[in-house]
Amino acid sequence: MATSPPTTALPTTLQLPSDIGIGNVTIGGYIACVMAKYTLHYARHHPKMQHQVDLRSAVVQFYRPVFPTKSMTMTLREVSIGKGWSTLRVESFQGDKLTTSGDLVVTNFSNEGVTLQTGWRPSPEPKPIDLTKLETDSHPDWISYHCAFYPDGFQRGHSYAKAFIPRTPRREATFVEQWIEPGWDCHPQGSLTNEMIQFIVEMPLPVQEDLFPPIEGKPSTGSIAATLEFAEALEEDGSKALKARVVNVSLTLSTEIKQRLPSEGVRWLYLRNECKRILNGRMDMEVLLFDEKMDLIAISHQTAFLIPPASKIQKL
Ligand SMILES: *[C@@H]1O[C@H](CO)[C@@H](O)[C@H](O)[C@H]1NC(C)=O
Ligand SMILES: *[C@@H]1O[C@H](CO)[C@@H](O)[C@H](O)[C@H]1NC(C)=O
Predict the structure, then answer these.
(1) What is the CATH number of the domain that holds 91?
(2) Which segments cross the bilayer (predicted)?
(3) Residue 110 in contact with ligand 1 by CB distance below 6 A
């Protein structure tokens, strides 16, 4: 049976900002956001997809690091166009090298369908919080950690979000919890929007650092214990030269978005990330993202490979 050739969009080429990076590599979650923006733009101008204005899911694979020093070209192919949702495949290249690909599903979250209360809640439940106390950084239980921005710093991308972590981490917890607000230079209105979800879920504090034993009584730099020390002492926080034991190379980032945040964005999101297993360098992570009413906004799964930090500075 003859099939019609796949419809493709004209490739688009862009220059990535070097500020949203870690070492000399662009943050993967940011690349995923750029791919989503391109996809939604394509859908909006397509007669059969113009109502599908929401990104419902994105499964993104990273094949090689993306460098902001080179331009990035994206191509798009229609995989399946449907009435309820459509799937588009985006590929990103630098030079002739494929760096990233993603299958992105667009839909309209206002389309009606079966709605049931599942009664599911994250366990253990997040403790109620007075967000006005976070705004003034005067909460007795939560302390802010905002990675300082240096144009030549290592963790530049992390400055774009500010995190609050519990002063006393829960003893039994296998997860890291944080409240996130926009950080440095985030958005004109300084708010968190759907466009940024893949970026937000990909850059929480690295849980794996907590699992290393302390060296000479000192916790590993990226760990929550060390972050608490930085937050309290306001000392050199690793944003300029990373001293963590490992950095991860993202392999896959799969994000399922549940609902539309208000278009003007929100100030606060609550995030929980949990690592299930790290074996021979391979790590998995599950991230849950909630709004301030503890409504589920997104679920994300990531796999990464852990390597010593120096290799992220060299051209891999
Ligand atoms: C999304 O769907 C709702 C309900 O069907 C509709 O009112 C709205 O216009 C749609 N959005 C767009 C941008 O078409
Ligand atoms: C990868 O490392 C970055 C930077 O330390 C961190 O924010 C992110 O959570 C890590 N990703 C995974 C999957 O651990």
Answers:
(1) 3.10.129.10
(2) 20-40
(3) yes
Clarify whether residues 89 and 224 are in a common domain. Answer: no
Range of the domain at 267: 131-313
Q: Are residues 136 and 100 in the same domain?
A: no
Assess whether the C-beta atom of 251 lies below 6 angstroms from ligand 1: no
pLDDT tens, position by position, 120-160: 999 888 888 999 998 888 899 998 877 666 677 666 677 67
Which-ligand-closest: CA of 21? 2
pTM, to two decimals? 0.85
Query: What whole-number distance in Å separates Cα of residue 234 and Cα of residue 222?
Result: 15
**Does the residue 120 lie in any domain?**
no
The encoded tokens of residue 237 equal 């926080």
Give just the sign of the alpha carbon dihedral 245, 251, 254, 255.
positive
Atom of ligand 2 nearest to the CA of 22: 4
pLDDT tens for each residue of 20-38? 777 778 889 999 999 999 9
Q: Are residues 261 and 144 in the same domain?
A: yes
Ligand 1 atom index nearest CA of 53 = 13
How remote is the CA of residue 200 from the centroid of ligand 2, in Å?
A: 11
Instruction: Work out how many domains the chain is built from and give that number.
Output: 2
Contact yes or no for 250/309 (Cβ under 8 A): no
CA-based nearest residue to 49, from 6, 79, 4: 79
